[in-house]
Design goal:
Layout: E1 3-5, E2 11-17, E3 22-26, E4 48-52, H1 75-85, E5 90-95, H2 98-108, E6 113-119, H3 132-140, H4 148-159, H5 165-170, H6 181-188, H7 190-193, H8 196-201, H9 210-217, E7 224-229, H10 237-244, E8 250-255, H11 262-265, H12 267-275
Parallel strand pairs: 3-4, 3-5, 5-6, 6-7, 7-8
Antiparallel strand pairs: 1-2, 2-4
Helix pairs in contact: 1-2, 2-9
């Protein structure tokens, strides 16, 4: 397991999967260890995945200052990894909450980004977020699922401000295109792979300055691919399209029948969307 030392002395780990042109992969969660990404549905057959364990997660060290868990303060870790790899430019993939981290990295270092791939990404860095209405519209697409009545009731309690921890656990099926054995096993690993303290600090509103970020992204000459899941509420395909329009070379594709982890729903479709083959 290779490691490197970041700007503040924190030792960070990353995992290599496959061979080929390197692709730095930033996990979401937020602050979930990169193990949940697996090999991204076989993408490692086409690219060398450089899966970063963000500080305080997986095999990476815990920083002395917890304030460095804030999303914008993780950007120097990504740049330190690029320098450690000895690459002048890098392709970066960010999933879910790491959509914000990847976006902030591209805004800070546009000349270092060869391509940006954002998979079911958050977009708070660009001033775009998801609403309850987005969640309701997407949830309605699952009305024929056998688990829907019970799970939707838990979602209603959450929206009403009465949600319990059990309710939050109950709504997990909405994150997957298919609530099957693979999805259940994947979801069951979440708690063990996540740093709760870091999760709370990562999305601090102070981390985001959308007007400044949007202005910086105007200098990004790299292609940006956003993959949205047809059944995902965060982002919905429409919100993903709004996010893509922020980038000079932004493009959105919608994976049919996919949820928040699209490589689990149709690995072949997902890989073809990224590699074009």
């Amino acid at each position: 397991m290779p490691t490197f030392t970041s700007y503040d002395g924190t030792e960070l780990a990353y995992h290599l999967r496959g061979e080929g042109s390197p692709l730095i992969v930033l996990p979401g969660g937020p602050m979930r260890a990169s193990a949940y990404l697996g090999d991204l549905g076989g993408l490692s057959a086409h690219r060398q995945l450089v899966l970063l364990d963000l500080r305080g997660t997986g095999d990476s060290g815990i920083p002395e200052d917890p304030a460095t868990y804030r999303c914008d303060r993780l950007v120097p870790d990504v740049e330190a990894l690029r320098a450690h790899l000895g690459l002048d430019r890098v392709d970066v993939l960010g999933h879910s909450a790491a959509g914000d981290l990847a976006t902030l990295y591209a805004a800070a270092y546009p000349e270092r980004v060869g391509a940006l791939i954002l998979v079911t990404p958050r977009a708070r860095a660009a001033g775009i977020d998801f609403t309850e209405q987005h969640r309701r519209e997407t949830a309605a697409l699952r009305a024929d699922e056998p688990w829907f009545p019970e799970v939707y009731a838990a979602l209603e309690r959450i929206w009403a401000g009465k949600g319990t921890e059990a309710d939050w656990d109950a709504v997990v099926p909405f994150y997957y295109g298919r609530w099957d054995a693979v999805a259940r096993a994947h979801a069951a690993e979440d708690a063990a792979q996540s740093n709760e303290e870091a999760q709370a600090l990562y999305p601090d509103p102070a981390a985001f300055d959308p007007p400044t970020t949007r202005a910086a992204l105007a200098a990004l000459d790299a292609p940006v691919l956003i993959i949205a899941g047809e059944l995902d509420s965060g982002p919905t395909p429409a919100v993903a399209a709004e996010f893509a329009a922020v980038f000079p070379k932004g493009e959105v594709v919608v994976q049919p029948g996919a949820g928040h982890f699209p490589w689990l729903d149709d690995a072949n479709w997902f890989v073809r969307a990224i590699t074009g083959r």
